[in-house]
Design a protein that fits this description.
transcription regulation, Rna Polymerase Sigma Factor, Chain: A, single chain, Sigma-70 family RNA polymerase sigma factor, Arc Repressor Mutant, subunit A
Length: 206
């Protein structure tokens, strides 16, 4: 299987098939990024991401950062989506402290098979969306802090500190849910495992 670099080089040289392979490789990941964050139209946003990727591919610095480049576009598309809703008169606060619970209160939470997973999902919805995205990139997409920095277009040390802050906010959010201490402790200790299982569940429902 060709790596991203080889496919990107071939795509830039005019090989449309290589571009198609790249998009197919990351379609599920980008779809997962939007799924559960908006009440409808996630497929349109996925298409918007890939259209923007085609239009701006010449600005991609290195082939090795293709995945980060895609998620950076997805992050911008998501925020633009909420800005558009604000412009048409919806009461949507897209400030730094806005949570998914604020932005999409009508979006139903994915049914979790385990109570720990339910707690994690609910806690994520209650922290600022910017930090929720960081946690999803780290634990769902297995990105390094260097890759997260590329997505957020911020210096690497800033990305590291934001990840630490995101985990602190998640911890506080779990505490506010008021569940039994043993249940909360289990959720914290198994964060990465639960996150990966939830990621897989999101993939399986479509």
């Amino acid at each position: 299987m060709a790596d991203d670099g080889a496919l990107l080089t071939a795509w830039r040289a005019g090989d449309r098939g290589a571009g198609k392979q790249l998009f197919e490789r990351y379609y599920d990941s980008i779809a997962r990024f939007f799924r559960g964050k908006i009440d409808h139209g996630s497929d349109d946003l996925v298409q918007e991401v890939f259209a923007a990727c085609v239009a701006g591919s010449d600005r991609l610095r290195t082939a090795a950062s293709f995945r980060s480049y895609l998620f950076a576009i997805a992050h911008n598309v998501l925020r633009d989506h909420f800005r558009r809703r604000q412009r048409v008169g919806e009461t949507v606060d897209i400030g730094e402290e806005a949570t998914l619970q604020d932005l999409s209160p009508g979006v139903s939470t994915l049914r979790a098979e385990a109570e720990d997973q339910r707690l994690l999902l609910e806690a994520l919805r209650r922290i600022p969306l910017n930090y929720q995205v960081i946690i999803e990139l780290r634990f769902w997409e297995s990105m390094t802090t260097a890759e997260i920095a590329e997505v957020l277009r911020t210096p690497h040390p800033t990305a590291r500190s934001r990840l630490r802050r995101a985990l602190e906010l998640l911890e506080a959010s779990l505490d506010r849910l008021g569940e039994a201490p043993a249940r909360l402790a289990s959720t914290r200790e198994n964060l990465e495992r639960w996150a990966l299982q939830l990621r897989d569940q999101r993939e399986s429902i479509d």
